[in-house]
């Protein structure tokens, strides 16, 4: 046996060598791509965003346009649906390899600023690579935090009550700007009684709506570093919600959960839904009815508490090519031709140049434009309140716990306590 | 043997037994068929859904559409987001086949060492390897990402394949070790007397006898690699390199147009390779069980 051992070791080594050779083969066959700079001064930047194939086709066209104008800059795109996008982004950011430029939303700004992920684009504005003029209604400062420019708006959206038009017509309801929550409650009951459908799909979990309600009452969902409301406030909001679910004013949460990812509105479970106005594009593609936009109910008959929300483009602090990234963002937000390609896909264009370049011809986008204009005319738009680090986690918790409340898994008191516990943890980290 | 014995004892009253067993067996079959219908229902629903318009897929309760359309399938030929769907299938197939080869070669070699060679620290190493089964994937995710980034291997298939060629899948090593331990020692002792080294014993004696374990590993690896979502999501940065599981996610997002029809049609098409692989190899699996049964 002693003699045998040497032989054994050698054969094992041989075998190991063989398997390593196979590995090497696999590696060389698959390894390609990589490096972002090359000899002739061409620079490659990575651009990631969330969306589906329709947005992808549009963005690909805008990138062709950009590359034609800036032949020295190549853009590589990467996209996933919203939840997967953030999974990937978090891994990449933790691994020190975030994309150079990426789509962003207001709830994430402070979080990634605190983690040192976002580039302050002020430098590039000063250097003249990025123009911050020509934005609509206060959007130029939308992505500014503590004097740093962390995101540039690409398109604005506002919260709205998306309604199933024929259902509302049958119920005999025409919501006008300035209608109150009492009117809204009455409308819900009428939709239920006259059309046999729930009035709303479950507004109690929508953080952005509760934010508006609080703003109407001189509060807000968030303060600089915490929650802007008390347990009593939320108990009141969710008690009303629980009653609404029990009495059939709001859609059965079980059914709403079952038909996901389709929305309760387009699946004809509810007559309306509070969400961002650009969601009507999706609802029209997945539902059979005609969808319209109604204003947010008010407390005092005037204030809706609304502000222009917006998707943004942010840059990574680790990018090797800040100048190119700034030029890219500049092109995407100012070039009129980009607007004609993108349409209202990411909301109504943020700059006046792009806003004027694209006039929608289809009824859905026309309605979005009309809705946004009506908000400006009514003068209800107010400045946005802060979204602290951890806002995204609070939003998700609010939605989840609200859903559990609707499903009857939690009592109101239990749900309120759970939400305050979770958000305290999220906001203090 | 036992089966034969009971047959003989029952032979005289076979007819009576049949009469007695008929209601029971009928009930059993009806029960089984009902269960099958429940299990198959989602599959049938998906098949029916793939011929519906996107807006009819959720909402209408009919299993099959009144006016079936094929445009969900034909539109797949346009590709997803400017990428032909064959690209996704080729990428997935490359990863799945590459993974199968890697697992078969590396895990069987490792298993051979653990099962057939005595060396210092064998038990400790074996325990450590089993211990890696307890590590949740999420704990490894970011360290692994950082590692592969430092090796400049992001946006290649290497991070998704390398581990498979280094026998890091402890489950398959374990499976094969258990199988090899049950092979009679006399076989490799006889081979050694005939002058075989370890490599020869591994290749000519152990591997052929391990076929059932290898086939099982191959099937599981193929399905796992084909279905893997997190790995490709994290490591691949270009839609042109995406796998089918990522491609399937491109049809619907919360904003913008939703194409449920395309998604359902593609998910059915994506099932075919897995089904084909399983059908092609499962007969070897049954065959293998028969031979291993004889051995005892």
Automatic annotation (TrEMBL), chain A:
UniProt cross-references to PROSITE patterns, sorted A to Z: PROKAR_LIPOPROTEIN, TAT
Family annotation (InterPro entries): Bact_solute-bd_prot1, SBP, TAT_signal
Pfam annotation, one family: SBP_bac_1
SUPFAM superfamilies: Periplasmic binding protein-like II
Full protein name: Extracellular solute-binding protein
Organism of derivation: Streptomyces prasinosporus
From TrEMBL, chain B:
Signal peptide: none
Transmembrane segments: 26-47, 88-112, 124-142, 162-180, 201-223, 260-281
Family: Belongs to the binding-protein-dependent transport system permease family.
Official protein name in the record: Carbohydrate ABC transporter permease
InterPro entries documented for this protein: MetI-like, MetI-like_sf
One protein family per Pfam: BPD_transp_1
Tagged with keyword Hydrolase: no
Keyword Nucleotide-binding found: no
Main location: membrane
Membrane topology note: Multi-pass membrane protein
Domain ABC transmembrane type-1: 89-281
Keyword vocabulary terms for this entry: Cell membrane, Membrane, Transmembrane, Transmembrane helix, Transport
SUPFAM superfamilies in UniProt: MetI-like
Subcellular location: Cell membrane
Organism of this sequence: Streptomyces prasinosporus
């Amino acid at each position: 046996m002693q003699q045998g051992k040497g032989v054994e070791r050698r054969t094992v080594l041989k075998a190991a060598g063989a398997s390593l050779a196979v590995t090497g083969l696999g590696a060389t066959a698959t390894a390609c791509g990589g490096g972002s700079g090359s000899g002739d001064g061409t620079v490659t930047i990575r651009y990631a965003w969330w969306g589906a194939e329709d947005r992808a086709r549009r963005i690909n066209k805008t990138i062709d346009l950009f590359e034609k104008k800036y032949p020295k800059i190549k853009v590589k795109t990467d996209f996933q649906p919203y939840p997967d996008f953030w999974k990937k982004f978090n891994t990449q950011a933790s691994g020190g390899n975030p994309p150079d430029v990426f789509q962003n939303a207001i709830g994430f700004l402070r979080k990634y600023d605190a983690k040192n992920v976002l580039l302050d684009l002020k430098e590039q504005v000063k250097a003249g690579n990025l123009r911050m003029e020509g934005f609509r209604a206060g959007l130029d400062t939308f992505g500014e935090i503590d004097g740093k420019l962390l995101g540039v708006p690409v398109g604005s959206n506002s919260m709205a009550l998306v309604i199933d038009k024929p259902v509302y017509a049958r119920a005999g309801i025409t919501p006008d700007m300035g209608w109150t929550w009492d009117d809204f409650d009455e409308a819900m009951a009428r939709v239920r009684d006259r059309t046999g459908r729930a009035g709303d799909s479950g507004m109690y979990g929508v953080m952005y709506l509760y934010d508006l309600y609080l703003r109407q009452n001189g509060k807000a969902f968030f303060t600089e570093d915490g929650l802007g409301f008390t347990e009593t406030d939320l108990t009141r909001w969710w008690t009303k919600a629980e009653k609404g679910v029990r009495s059939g004013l709001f859609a059965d949460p079980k059914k709403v959960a079952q038909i996901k990812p389709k929305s309760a509105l387009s699946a004809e479970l509810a007559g309306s839904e509070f969400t961002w106005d650009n969601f009507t594009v999706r609802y029209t593609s997945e539902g059979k009815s005609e969808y319209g936009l109604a204003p947010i109910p008010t407390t005092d008959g005037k204030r809706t508490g609304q502000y222009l929300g917006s998707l943004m483009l942010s840059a990574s602090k680790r990018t090797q090519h800040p100048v190119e990234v700034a030029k890219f963002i500049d092109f995407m937000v100012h070039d009129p031709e980009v607007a004609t390609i993108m349409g209202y896909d990411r909301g109504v264009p943020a700059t006046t140049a792009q806003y004027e370049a694209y006039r929608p011809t289809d009824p859905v986008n026309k309605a979005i434009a009309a809705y946004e204009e009506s908000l400006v005319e009514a003068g209800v738009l107010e400045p946005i309140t802060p979204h602290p680090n951890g806002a995204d986690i609070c939003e998700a918790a609010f939605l989840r716990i609200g859903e559990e409340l609707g499903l009857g898994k939690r009592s109101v008191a239990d749900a309120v306590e759970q939400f305050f516990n979770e958000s305290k943890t999220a906001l203090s980290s | 043997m036992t089966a034969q014995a009971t047959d003989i004892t029952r032979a005289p009253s076979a007819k009576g037994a049949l009469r007695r067993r008929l209601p029971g067996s009928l009930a059993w079959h009806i029960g089984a068929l009902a269960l099958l219908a429940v299990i198959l229902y989602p599959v049938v629903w998906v098949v029916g859904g793939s011929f519906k318009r996107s807006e009819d897929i959720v909402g209408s309760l009919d299993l099959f559409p009144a006016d079936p359309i094929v445009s969900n399938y034909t539109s797949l030929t346009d590709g997803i987001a400017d990428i032909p769907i064959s690209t996704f299938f080729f990428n997935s197939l490359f990863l799945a086949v590459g993974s199968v080869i890697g697992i078969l070669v590396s895990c069987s070699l490792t298993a051979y060492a653990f099962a057939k060679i005595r060396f210092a620290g064998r038990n400790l190493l074996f325990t450590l390897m089993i211990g890696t089964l307890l590590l949740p994937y999420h704990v490894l995710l970011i360290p692994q990402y950082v590692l592969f980034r430092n090796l400049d291997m992001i946006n290649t298939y290497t991070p998704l394949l390398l581990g498979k060629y280094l026998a890091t899948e402890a489950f398959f090593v374990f499976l094969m070790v258990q199988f090899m331990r049950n092979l009679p020692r006399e076989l490799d002792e006889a081979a050694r007397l005939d002058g075989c080294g370890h490599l020869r014993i591994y290749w000519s004696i152990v591997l052929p006898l391990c076929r059932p374990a290898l086939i099982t590993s191959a099937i599981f690896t193929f399905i796992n690699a084909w279905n893997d979502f997190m790995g490709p999501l994290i490591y691949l940065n270009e839609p042109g390199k995406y796998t089918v599981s990522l491609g399937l996610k491109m049809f619907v997002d919360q904003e913008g147009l939703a194409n449920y029809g395309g998604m359902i049609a593609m998910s059915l098409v994506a099932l075919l390779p897995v089904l084909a692989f399983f059908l092609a190899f499962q007969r070897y699996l049954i065959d293998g069980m028969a031979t291993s049964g004889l051995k005892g």
